[in-house]
Amino acid sequence: MVAGETSGDLLAGLLLNGLKARWPNLQSGGIGGPQMTRQGFDAWWPSDKLAVRGYVEVLRHYREIAGIREQLKNRLLSAPGQRPDVFIGVDAPDFNLGLEAALKADGIRTVQFVCPSIWAWRADRVEKIRRSVDHVLCIFPFEPALLATHGIAATYVGHPLAAVIPMQPDRAAARRTLGLQGEDTVVAILPGSRKSEIEYLALRFFQAVALVQQAQPAIKFIVPAIPALKSLIERLADEAGVRADVQIVAGQSHAVLAACDVTLIASGTATLEAALFKRPMVIAYNMNWLSWQIMRRKQLQPWVGLPNILCRDFVVPELLQDAATPRALADALLQWVDAKSSAPEKITAVQQRFTQLHALLQRDTSQLATDAIQKILET
């Protein structure tokens, strides 16, 4: 298996739980993170080696990433006892599809868990998917039909997070865990799970925090930080002058999302987690200028944030690139905060949309994915 970054590690860990229940003597190895290793996965390289986003950023790390992929390919194809019955690539399509193509050409069954977002951008990937994988495990319900039109076998398995996150999150319990009071107005700040994201987003997020605090000093701010990046986040909060006013915790992103009233959040899987917690949000993103210019030309629809894409509507605001100024971010956050008292129906409407989305994505993902993999192995 190969899973890149935090979200892939989480998805792969959930999948491994189902695979181990079906095959107790399962042996698994490759590239993974802590959620996978807790399931007995042998991580030959850590998943954060692949946690790079954007064309320019990838180029800076290309030699190292390409070297890891070549070493992994050779190990799976050549090393005694390492040839797998099936290879599962979890997300990370830029890394996995090329590896899967080489493995499939050599007779190894290949599965891609999470369909590359050909419906959002980079439709040119379809041919590469067909050439690279035997089967795709899809986490969104419309994907199998889309892939079928291109002759690609696929199964909808639901989104694992929809089963993990309760339909009715316990806000009070989450606040007690984090030392927050029940009557507090709480804003969660999630500037990303990659170092490159935090470098581009965290400072402007914290500058927005300073502006929100000027308007409403009683608001509590909390940041769930990946432990390895916590010191960087603390430094950027200090640079923005808000370190003493922001509670930065190691991990606990689900507790933070359950506890908050609204979140300022980097575009990515975390936005779907926030939607499953039924939280209003402001989605933002900023990256290298050249990477942005390349990506926007490949964009196939008007939305970037997953909740908006899946709802086919701008349910929550998106502030991207030059639009993601501290002032704009602060104003968007304050609109949600003010709506608690001035327009509660606005928040209720968002929560209803996200509840419908949650129900649509809720399936026994581990069971469905394991069933699909077993069928592949039996053919």
UniProtKB/TrEMBL annotation:
MF terms (GO), sorted A to Z: lipid-A-disaccharide synthase activity; phospholipid binding
Pfam families the record matches: LpxB (PF02684)
Keywords: Glycosyltransferase, Lipid A biosynthesis, Lipid biosynthesis, Lipid metabolism, Transferase
GO CC terms in record: membrane
EC numbers on record: 2.4.1.182
Domain of life: Bacteria
Pathway(s) the chain acts in: Bacterial outer membrane biogenesis; LPS lipid A biosynthesis
GO terms under biological process: lipid A biosynthetic process
Top enzyme category: transferase
Reactions accelerated catalytically: a lipid X + a UDP-2-N,3-O-bis[(3R)-3-hydroxyacyl]-alpha-D-glucosamine = a lipid A disaccharide + UDP + H(+)
InterPro entries according to UniProt: Glyco_trans_19
Family: Belongs to the LpxB family.
PANTHER family: LIPID-A-DISACCHARIDE SYNTHASE, LIPID-A-DISACCHARIDE SYNTHASE, MITOCHONDRIAL-RELATED
Functional description taken from the UniProt entry: Condensation of UDP-2,3-diacylglucosamine and 2,3-diacylglucosamine-1-phosphate to form lipid A disaccharide, a precursor of lipid A, a phosphorylated glycolipid that anchors the lipopolysaccharide to the outer membrane of the cell.
Designated name of the protein: Lipid-A-disaccharide synthase
Source taxonomy: Bacteria, Pseudomonadati, Pseudomonadota, Betaproteobacteria, Burkholderiales
Gene: lpxB
